[in-house]
Amino acid sequence: MVRGTVALEEAEVRIRPVSVVPQAGSATLTCGRAHVVLPAFNEEGSLPPLLRRLANLSLAGGLTVWVVDDGSSDATAATAERGVDGLDVRLVRHRVNLGLGRALQTGLRSAVEAASDDDVVVVMDADDTHDPGLIPLLQKEIAAGADVVICSRFVDGGDDTTAPFGRRVLSRGAGALFRHTLDVDGVRDFTSGFRAYRVSLLRRATDHWGERLVEEQGFACMVELLLKLRHCDPVIAEIPLPLRYDRKKSVSKLRLRRTMGQYAKLLVRDRLSPAPFRKL
Known about the structure:
Blueprint: E1 4-8, E2 11-15, E3 34-40, H1 47-55, E4 63-70, H2 76-82, E5 88-94, H3 100-114, E6 120-123, H4 135-143, E7 148-152, H5 165-181, E8 195-198, H6 199-209, H7 221-229, E9 236-240, H8 256-272
Parallel strand pairs: 3-4, 3-6, 4-5, 7-9
Antiparallel strand pairs: 1-2, 2-5, 6-8, 7-8
Helix pairs in contact: 5-8
């Protein structure tokens, strides 16, 4: 791989040279390479162990990690640029903090532009609370026909007991509200930040919405993306997520009152906005 920098509007991409040796005995999947998008703001302490866990994965199609540094004031960018031996890490930088939604949009766009249609984009939190060991299970569900796979805290085997009480109440309350008000079958965990998407699905949605694919700036962006993808009639699956909040080293960026307001605004907008003018 050649070191280089690519301008991406307000972002820039840095590619770290890496030598990746395929491991023998890997199972062959019908989905291709995994592209892991990590929106990151002041995560210098959490990134090294997370990147090491990702480097230890053995995936048939290979793995590329996209760290989106959202204007961090610490050494998040330098940590990502150093990377980990044997792992293809690409740094995308926002010069100023633009919020989770813009970081998600930038990461998805960067990954999709580099990916093939049969690849998978996995979005994870960069604070090491999500276990990369679930990625092979996400790939397996995509290979079996799912278009979106959600790592869910609210299915059998899922667990969120390590999270703070207020965060647990917000996630469970939002999940119950969205299940009763939104037309998305089979989803229990609407706010999970750990998901896999088939690249061809993201391309269809991006062709329609363009830069409007993700408009919410805060944590509501995960729900917004799911609501927009539903117009593509995706097959959605969930697998259990044991949340590891006990591994979190950084300060939480979630603000309960602000996030509740964002969820309420999103619901109103979803009710008032017309469906796409054509089936995606």
